[in-house]
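Archive entry. Fields below.
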Amino acid sequence: MGNVTRASADVQVSPVPQEMTGPRGPKPRTVLSRRNIMIYGTLIMVSLYYMLPLYVMIVTSLKGMPEIRLGNIFSPPVEITFQPWVKAWAEACTGLNCDGLSRGFFNSVRILIPSVLLSIAIASVNGYALANWRFKGSETFFTILIVGAFIPYQVMIYPIVIMLREVGLYGSLTGLVIVHTIFGMPILTLLFRNYFASVPQELFKAARVDGAGFWGIYFRIMVPMSLPIFVVAMILQVTGIWNDFLFGVIYTKPDLYPMTVQLNNIVNSTQGVKEYNVNMAATILTGLVPLTIYFISGKLFVRGIAAGAVKG
Amino acid sequence: METNQSISIKNLALSFGALDVLKDLNLDVGQGEFLVLLGSSGCGKSTLLNCIAGLLDVSDGQIFIGGRNVTWEEPSERGIGMVFQSYALYPQMTVAGNLSFGLKNAGLPKAEIEERVNRAAKVLQIEPLLSRKPAALSGGQRQRAAIGRALVRDADVFLFDEPLSNLDAKLRADLRVEIKQLHQKLSNTMIYVTHDQIEAMTLADRIAIMRGGQILQLASPNEIYNRPANKYVAEFIGSPTMNFFEGDIVGGDGLRFSTGDQFFPLEGYEFHNGTPVQGPAWFGIRPEHMVTGAEADTAAIRLNGSVELVEPLGSDTLARVAVAGRSLWVRMDGQALVRDGDSVTVGFDPARANLFDKSSENRI
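PREDICTED_STRUCTURE:
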C-alpha cells in the first residue's frame, strides 16, 4: 500500500501532459477503405460464382416438377417437397434395378473403405522405407514409382482388364479395390516419403540407439508424429476413389456399379421425362461424402499439404 | 585388445562414392576418458561419432567397444547412449516416456524401468518434468531430458553430438559445467563432438583435432594449446588466432628467424625432437604471449608499431597493431589505456613461439 501512495504522490509532483496519458498508437483504419472494398468485393464475387450453382441445385431439388416447368431456376420453392430426394435415394431406376442410388452408395462404401485403408497402409510404409531406410536402388525404385504417376490411365486400362480376368477378379469389387490401391500408390508414396523425410533424422537415429527396429520406429515414432499427412492422404483417396467413374464402369458390372456410375445412369437416362429435381437430389447425395470429409478435416488438410510441401 | 581401453578404432574408413569422409583412422579411448572431437564443419567428426554409434556403416576397418568387435552390430547392442544436437526427443511422448522407450524395447521389467528413470531424473534434476511433453520444456530442460535418455541405458560409453549448439550462451556455459560434473560423477567414457574450442578445452581429457577425415593431433588441451602439432591446429585453437610471420630459419651465431628485414633470435625455443632445423618456416606467436609497455622493453624480440583497432572486452583488451606493413593481434590488460593511432612496442619471448615448416606446415 505504501508504494502505491508514493507512486500517486509522484504523479502529482510531475504532472504528465494530457496527450501522453490518453490512448496512444496509430489511428484506427477505416473499415470501408479502398483496399477492403477491393478484397471483399472480389471475395464476394468469387463466392457467388461457386455458391450459385449449389443454390440452384438445392432449390430445384426441393421443387415439384410443375414448379420447375415454370422456368424460374433462381426462385425459391413455393411448396417444399422431399419427394425427389426419396425417389433419388430409393426408387429411381437404372436398368432393371429400381432401388435408387442406395445400391450405388453401398457399393461405393464397399469399394472405398478397403481401397483407402489398403493404399494408405502400403504407401505410408513405402514412403517410410524410402525416406529412412535407403537401400541399394531405392532412388531408382522411387523414380520408377513417380514415372508411374505420369503414365495416362487409358494406356493401362486394357492390360489390367486382361490381368484381372486371368486371376478371376474381373467384374468384382475386390478387383476394383486392387486397381484403386495400385493407382493411388505413386502419389501417396511421394506424399509420405516427403513428409517422413522432413522429420528430423536425429529422431530416427535416437530411436535406433534406443533399440527400435523397422516396425517399432514406424508405429511408435513415425505414425504418431504424422497425423496430418495421414489425414491428407485419406482426403485425397476418399475423394479420388469416391469420384472415380472410369475404373468403376470398366472393372465392375451393373449390380456392383459405384454411386457415380449409377448417378450418370439416372441423370442420362433417355426414357420418359427429365426429372430435374430427382437429378439434382441424386447429384447432391453423391457429392455429400467428399463434401463432408472436406468440412470435417479442412484445417488438418491445409496443415498437412503445407508440411509436405515445404521440405522434401 | 588391452582391457583399459574403452573404445578402439582400427583403420577406419568411410566413403560415399568417390568421396572419402574418413581415411584410415585409428583412435584409442581409455576407460572413463572424456575425449572431444574438435574440428570445423565437414571435417568428419560427426561422421566418426555416427560410425562409433553404428548409425553409419563403415567402408573399412574395425570398431571395438569394451574389447568387443562391434563393427557390424546394431546401435542398440553396442552399449552406448547418445545425445543429439537437436535433442531428438520423441514429441508425442512425455519425458518419462522418452526415457523409458529404449528400456521398453530392451524388454526390461517394469519396476526396473521405473527405478532407472527415477534415478536418472534425480541425477539431472528433471523429476518435476517427467510427466511433461517435450514441447512444454525449455531448451535446457530438453537437453537434460535427452541426456537422461542416454543415462537410463546404463551405457559404458556416452556419445554427444554437439549437444549444446542449439542453446544460448549462458545456458551453454551452465550445461557445460553440468556435463563435466556428470562425467566426474559417473566416470563413463564420453566422446563429445563440437566445433566450439572453449567446450573442447574445458571438458576434454584429450582433444582430437580433425580435418578432412583425419585426426591431426590427439593430445591434452594443454599440449594442444602450447605445442600444436601443425599450423592448422595452431590457427584453430585460440581466439584471436595466432599471429604468423613468414620467413626463414637461418644459421650464423645462433639460429635466427628472418622475416622481411627483421631477425628474431630463437634462443630458448624448444625444437620438435630437440633437433634444430633451418629453411623456410612460419613463426607463430599467440596474442596473449605478446607484451607491451615496460615489459616489452626487456623482451627478447621487440617490434614497433601503431594501434589500428581496439576491442575492449572488460577482462582483456584486444588491440590490432600494425607492424611493418602487417597486422598483429595483441592481448593486453583489460584496463590498458590504448587508443587507435597510439605508438606501441610489442615484445615477445621466442620460448613461447611456435615454428612450423613452410611446406609441410608441421611443427619443427
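CURATOR_NOTE: The longest helix of chain B spans residues 169-186.
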